[in-house]
Amino acid sequence: MTSPGSETETPLPADDPELFEMDLRALRRRWAGAAERQPISAEQMTGADRRAQAFGVPGERLMEHAGTAVAAAVRALAETTGRADRGSILILCGPGNNGGDGLVAARRLAGAGAPVVVALVATETRPSTSDARRNWDRLEGIEAVTRVHTPVARDVAILGQSLDQVAVVVDALLGTGVRGTLREPIRSAVELIGRARTAGIPVVAVDTPTAVDLTSGDGSVPVAQADLTVTFHRPKRGLLTRRGAALAGRILVAPIGIPQEADRG
What we know:
Layout: H1 24-30, H2 32-35, H3 42-54, H4 59-80, E1 88-93, H5 97-111, E2 116-120, H6 130-138, E3 145-149, H7 153-160, E4 166-172, H8 186-198, E5 203-206, E6 228-232, H9 237-240, H10 242-248, E7 250-254
Parallel strand pairs: 1-2, 1-4, 2-3, 4-5, 5-6, 6-7
């Protein structure tokens, strides 16, 4: 028997064959159990993630569910806003696991028929975590995916010259835990996100808008703002504050397979 809100009550995103047929309202209903849980802080979420892996859930599988949820939300938002045929999905990926979620989303979106441009916004030529690196490599050879590396601000600026060919921007740059002024090339990528929103291009954030703290809701300098944020496992306290909610836009809470025994939050 499962308890209320248990992730076993509904198919997890990567195992859900109907996910890419749903609009945003249907996704919200599908994942209602996750949204109804008690909110947690960034530290509690990190603990739940680590305990899940200690109990035998591979980090790569958690990432697969997270990225698939993001992809489904991006597709639904593109359809809802009438932008599905307006160009490519631009996914801005940082070097860590937040970027890794974006890489999974890229693969899933391409599999659903969407053209995708993936920018690795980092000084290194490959992601910094093993799970993210595996998902970067899995994009090689996928015809619908264009991979680019933007290690400096100038490269990000060149990328921004093609915003008129972008349907939706995905912010998968950084998760929580960053304080103060952002460094290049992340800073320029956040500024690009701002220009995209000003131009009327919807922005979807992965877990949190870049460097918006999931505990306090405080933002970085500059700060990213999203139209839709897909956060994972439970609502986050920081996104429920006045500041965090204004930066997150609409929020979906997606289950990613963290077992009940790993969740002490």
